[in-house]
Write a structure and sequence with these properties.
- The complex is a heterodimer of chains A (116) and B (113).
- With 116 residues, chain A is an all-beta fold.
- Helices cover 0% and strands 55% of the residues of chain A.
- In chain A, the strands form two sheets. In chain A, strands 2, 4, 5, 6, 9, 10 and 11 form a seven-stranded mixed sheet that branches. A four-stranded antiparallel sheet of chain A has the order 1-3-8-7, with no helix packed on it.
- The model of chain A has no long low-confidence stretch (mean pLDDT 88).
- With 113 residues, chain B is mainly beta.
- In chain B, the strands form three sheets. In chain B, strands 2, 5, 6, 10, 11 and 12 form a six-stranded mixed sheet that branches. In chain B, strands 3-9-8-7 form a four-stranded antiparallel sheet, with no helix packed on it.
- Chain B is globular.
- Classes of the chains: A mainly beta (116), B mainly beta (113).
- The interface between A and B is medium-sized, with 21 and 23 residues.
């Protein structure tokens, strides 16, 4: 148990559906991250939040919409996804106290998403 | 842009033996951090070891140690006395003081009984 939880663990959705992924960290951290892990590609950083403010958006399509209502919770809202968006979506957190430089990230178990 | 390369997609090692996973990276920065993360079949990724580039001494964490060659931009992970529980995907990662966080493609390690 790393203190970072993600729900749901598995999700199947159609291309016209709207769904949300949830991440919660119980570590008192201030920085949270969304990653996409595809089968054949390196782990891709999608979004970074530090003290609830989005600090990075790595050219992610607008069909992915993050939300960070507080330092403990991070959501990823999904709409009109494509089959190529099927992947494991990992959430992570770090302390955020040093501007996140060099900080160890603690990962959740991930949400396995399948888009049909 | 920074890149991280892991040239060994898959490796295997006999239990109790030693194995080394390679990682190279490309950067023009002088100060940065390097990590090895482990992702077991359960999919929960955890930190194995961490190295600050300004430190010449190689990081060590129990059976895990690194060989950090800054000039060569190499950061290999050595696992001694391999155990069945070490079976996992291993990701090398680079962190440029919060500006970029890049993972390598991973190496799948199988520890054989």
């Amino acid at each position: 148990e790393t203190g970072v939880t993600q729900t749901p663990r598995h999700l199947v959705m159609g291309m016209t559906n709207k769904k949300s992924l949830k991440c919660e960290q119980h570590l008192g951290h201030n920085a949270m991250y969304w990653y996409k892990q595809s089968a054949k590609k390196p782990l891709e950083l999608m979004f970074v939040y530090n003290f609830k403010e989005q600090t990075e958006n790595n050219s992610v399509p607008s069909r992915f919409s993050p939300e960070c209502p507080n330092s403990s919770h991070l959501f990823l809202h999904l709409h009109t996804l494509q089959p190529e968006d099927s992947a494991l979506y990992l959430c992570a957190s770090s302390s955020g106290t040093s501007g996140r430089e060099g900080e160890t990230q603690y990962f959740g178990p991930g949400t396995r998403l399948l888009v049909l | 842009a920074q890149t991280v390369t892991q040239s060994q997609p898959e490796m295997s090692v006999q239990e109790a033996e030693t194995v080394t996973l390679s990682c190279t990276y490309d950067t023009s920065e002088n100060n940065y951090y390097l990590f090895w993360y482990k992702q077991p079949p359960s999919r929960q990724m955890i930190l194995v070891i961490r190295q600050e580039a300004y430190k010449q001494q190689n990081a060590t964490e129990n059976r895990f140690s690194v060989n950090f060659q800054k000039a060569a931009k190499s950061f290999s992970l050595k696992i001694s006395d391999s155990q069945l529980g070490d079976t996992a995907m291993y990701f090398c990662a680079y962190d440029n003081y919060g500006q970029n966080f890049v993972f390598g493609p991973g190496t799948r390690l199988s520890v054989l009984p």
